[in-house]
Design a protein that fits this description.
Helix content is 41%, strand content 14%. It is built from 11 helices and 12 strands.
């Protein structure tokens, strides 16, 4: 059905960020077309995908299997394929469009940068790392920036850990509630192959470890600022290429865990050594890398362009997520009772 409203295509709309973005764009007046495994436009229907993108004003791709899992061989392959193959499918659709979207925003990750304890990684001066997660990010961006799409401006969002009711924040809150909310110390780890390189240009080998003593940096961004950054990029047609999305001042692991303990009301937080985390993360079915890598990222391009972050206090950002979760619990229980 034709409409006078601008059209936005959101791929990966079923995920945490995608759901929030689709709702935000609708509130802004967009006609939103969602692409996903269970959406009206699915990945296995290239004709429907091309029709959705042709004539769209905005394309945002957030598709990709969550990294909040164990890096088994099957999960490693799925994490890579779910990013690269979906991006290539969108690339083909944009290239084939008679009226291609003016802006394509593709998710990426700040994990592409090296473990940094000495200085922040900015877009012009950041150094890329090595290993599985970095290889995934590099392959993802190569697929995104491949070829010539002269009518479409492309922006890759190198997202820091997003604070909101998503998998990363839920995992951190769970650690704090279970008493494991002390600082996390990296250290020697028995050799394993889960973090080895992947793809056409694999890098890295044995799992790295550093004597961080709980001082590894924690770059983050609130979900509201992610949505505002996308709005900002829509307006700023002079910005293309890679853009870091993280608050200007990174926290560190000790401050993060202290904030989490405060938010959940847990007075005790046992410091965790690497071997303890290996066991805890095996139980939680996720990876220690998510909290042990020092992610120190600065959003130089956004700040220089005049973007201002609304949420820069980590404790308050985490507290707002916990408040929203508590408010939703009674509503969810009432819904279940009504259905029973």
């Amino acid at each position: 059905m034709s409409t006078d409203r601008p059209r936005a295509v959101v791929a990966g709309a079923g995920g945490f960020i995608g759901e929030a973005l689709a709702a935000s764009l609708r509130a802004d007046g967009y006609d939103v077309v969602e692409v996903g495994r269970t959406s009206r436009v699915s990945w296995n229907d290239p004709e429907a995908l091309r029709a959705a993108i042709d004539g769209a004003d905005l394309l945002v791709n957030l598709a990709g299997k969550s990294v909040d899992c164990r890096y088994t061989d099957a999960n490693r392959d799925a994490i890579l394929a779910s990013r690269v193959e979906t991006t290539r499918a969108l690339h083909d659709a944009v290239a084939a469009a008679s009226v291609p979207p003016g802006l394509w925003v593709n998710s990426s990750t700040a994990t592409i940068y090296r473990h940094a304890m000495d200085r922040p990684n900015t877009e012009p001066t950041g150094e890329l790392g090595a290993g599985f997660s970095v290889d995934v990010a590099k392959a993802w961006e190569r697929a995104f920036f491949a070829g010539d799409l002269p009518a479409t401006r492309r922006v890759a969002l190198r997202l820091a850990i997003v604070v909101g009711d998503g998998p990363a924040t839920r995992m951190l809150l769970t650690l704090a509630r279970t008493g494991l909310g002390g600082p996390q110390h990296d250290g020697w780890v028995p050799p394993h192959r889960r973090y080895r390189g992947i793809g056409d240009e694999p890098t890295g080998g044995r799992p790295p470890w550093y004597r961080t003593r709980g001082r590894q940096r924690f770059s983050w961004v609130h979900i509201d600022d992610v949505l505002d950054a996308i709005r900002f990029l829509v307006r700023r047609d002079d910005i293309a290429g890679v853009v870091n999305v993280a608050v200007p001042e990174a926290s560190d692991n000790r401050s993060l865990m202290r904030s989490l303990r405060s938010v959940v009301g847990m007075p005790v937080g046992i410091p965790s050594l690497r071997w303890m985390l290996e066991i805890a993360m095996w139980v939680l079915r996720t990876e220690p890398e998510l909290i042990l890598k020092s992610r120190w990222v600065a959003p130089e391009r956004l700040v220089d362009a005049g973007f201002r972050f609304s949420h820069t206090d980590l404790r308050e950002a985490l507290a707002s997520v916990e408040r929203e979760r508590r408010l939703r619990r009674p509503a969810a229980r009432r819904t279940r009772s009504a259905r029973s």
